[in-house]
Amino acid sequence: LADASNEDRYTCNGTVDADISPNDTLQDMVGSMAGHLSDSGGLWTIRAGAYRTPTLTFTDSEVVGSLQIMARQSRQDSYNGVRGTYIAAINQYAEADFPVVKNDTYKANDGGIRLWKDIALNFTDSAAMAQRLAKIDLEVGRQQLTVVGDFNLKAMQCQVGDVIYLTRDRMGW
What gap in Å lies between CA 152 and CA 156, rounded to an integer? Predict the structure, then answer.
């Protein structure tokens, strides 16, 4: 941290309210760790957003059909700044605003207009952690390339959430 102290990067801190749906509670928990929640064949998995080394490499020889590449979100879903609230441990766990995260280069790319995304980090209790999560959210929101394709049986080794390398000579990847 800026003051040379340390804190864990991916923690889930809070209480569960019985009035909130389990799905909303799980989404809030996942948001506290920049993570992903998946249900694969009835098995639920939560993975924190920490870097994971790719487990497999797929090349042109494993592609059995075309690859569909989706490049950009719609303008209405684009943003270049993130602001929101967290549950401040330093303030007796009252809701508080965290320092905003914004990117002026992204703003310039968006015609000079500041586009905000508002988030509520209900299981985050540190302003620094909230700001870090907002930065991750902003960068993920700007990395808008999605690839969908059919692969040979080698892909059966993958699970939802795995990180892979994709080498595609035709695309220069």
Answer: 8
Residue type, 121: L
CA–CA separation, 135 vs 102, rounded Å? 8
Residue 119: strand pairing partners: 84
Q: Tell which wins on pLDDT, 41 or 88.
A: 88
User: Among candidates 35, 30, 29, 27, which has minimal Cα distance to 51?
Assistant: 35
Which residues are CB-neighbours of 153 under 8 A, at least 6 positions away?
none
**Residue carrying structure tokens 């075309």:** 66
3-class DSSP assignment, residue 99: coil
Dist CA 172 CA 15 (whole Å): 48
- 3-state DSSP call for residue 119? strand
pTM exceeding 0.90: no
d(CA 77, CA 128): 26
Q: How many CB atoms lie within 10 A of CB 67?
A: 15
Amino acid at position 9, single letter: R
C-alpha angle 134-137-138 in degrees, rounded to nearest 5: 90
Tokens for 73, please give them.
């979100």
